[in-house]
Amino acid sequence: MLSITTLKKRVLPVFILLLSASCLYAQTEMDAIMMNKGQFCNGFMYTYSSWDHYWEGALKRNNQNLGTVSTQSVMYGANYGVKDNINVIATVPYVWTKASAGTLHGMKGIQDLSLFVKWRPLQRKMGNGKFSLFAIGGLSFPLSDYTPDFLPLSIGLRSTTLSAKVMADYQAGNLFATGSAAYVYRNNIKIDREAYYTTEMHYTNEVQMPDAANFHFRAGFRNHRFIAEAVLNNWTTLGGFDITRNNMPFPSNRMNATTAGVNFKYVIPPVPALSLVAGGNSTVAGRNMGQATSVYGAVFYALDLGRKSKSTSSSLKTN
Length: 319
Description:
Layout: H1 13-16, E1 39-51, E2 53-56, E3 59-62, E4 69-83, E5 86-99, E6 108-110, E7 112-126, E8 129-142, E9 161-172, E10 175-186, E11 189-190, E12 196-197, E13 201-202, E14 206-207, E15 211-222, E16 226-238, E17 256-267, E18 274-287, E19 293-304, H2 312-315
Antiparallel strand pairs: 1-4, 1-19, 2-3, 4-5, 5-6, 5-7, 7-8, 8-9, 9-10, 10-15, 11-14, 12-13, 15-16, 16-17, 17-18, 18-19
């Protein structure tokens, strides 16, 4: 169920929260797992991410002024099965940041509420397996008046976003592969200054935020009790500009990142409604981003709110 889920969104927490965690199967907007009608899964995920090197444009540098920049978050997530093929997902993270050196203080607070509708219009047998097609729509908006213009220690960018995603999944036996592509519209933001410089001078407090594209691939082992998967994620900003030499990052910078990692989920046999999730990833390529390494763990519990004769554990399916 939830996400994962990231100098960022970039080193920034926003991307870090693109990491997924999940419920009994890992139901998030980034995987092919669905809750059945009437099922409700919710829980908490803890994430820790840190970096001491970053890309200033394409130039990789160390971060002597700030030392190691770390981001921690605790996220609540919930997933409800409106129908067997329609899920509604919500996540809310509390984020705090810290720099191990220098004089800049970290920030903390509630970040953004993210809402997703996940629809599976097609599922059919194909060869020795099963093919599923998904469409996902998302909306996120800030829940607190945090400052976006204090990167890389801001807890987010305060931009209201809309996303549209297409995802395909194929599973044969216990082996699967899932791929998706998304377009993310980002609304302009306002900062606490009346003028700023990007590649030219702007005499306004409004910052035009570039849109972005997100590409995601995961593959591995998946059954009703255990998931082990490799995860590759790419975020590409469609516009923006590079951090200027020896300067602080800015919210409308071009921020690109490719991360590679692993994700595991285990359903507790004595309590099949309870699942544990753990994983991590590292930034393997980037632009105007910190080279972050992240780890996370989560606990989720599922309820069958529409329960009649079937138990929660028997009704959960892998896709």
